[in-house]
Write a structure and sequence with these properties.
Blueprint: E1 15-17, E2 26-27, E3 34-35, E4 44-46, H1 55-84
Antiparallel strand pairs: 1-4, 2-3
């Protein structure tokens, strides 16, 4: 059990879209776009407190989320390959291309 110092693993914080920029990271007051101050131009805020994350924490949290989504994508691709069976040369909707 670790008692002092930084933790061994980074903790993922629940994020939600910024209410000011709606997750875009920029606001358009009239004619031009400006970085959103509500989320430090990241588009995401802490879901529990609604506060903007520091740039260092924002980069870390977005990287953790990207890693999680990439793992989900790989898992879904593996599941799809297991369901589709061996490749038999058929096209879309199981149609066979005859070259006509």
């Amino acid at each position: 059990m670790k008692r002092s110092g930084p933790s061994f693993q980074q903790e993922q914080v629940k994020l939600k879209r910024c209410g000011e920029c709606h997750g875009r990271g920029v606001v358009k007051p009239m004619f031009y776009e400006m970085p959103c101050t509500g989320c430090n131009a990241g588009g995401m805020v802490n879901a529990e407190t609604g506060e903007a994350l520091s740039l260092e924490d924002l980069v870390l949290q977005l990287r953790l989320e990207a890693n999680r989504l990439e793992e989900d994508n790989q898992r879904l691709r593996r599941d799809l390959m297991e369901c589709s069976g061996p490749e038999r040369g058929y096209g879309p909707l199981g149609a066979r291309y005859t070259g006509d």
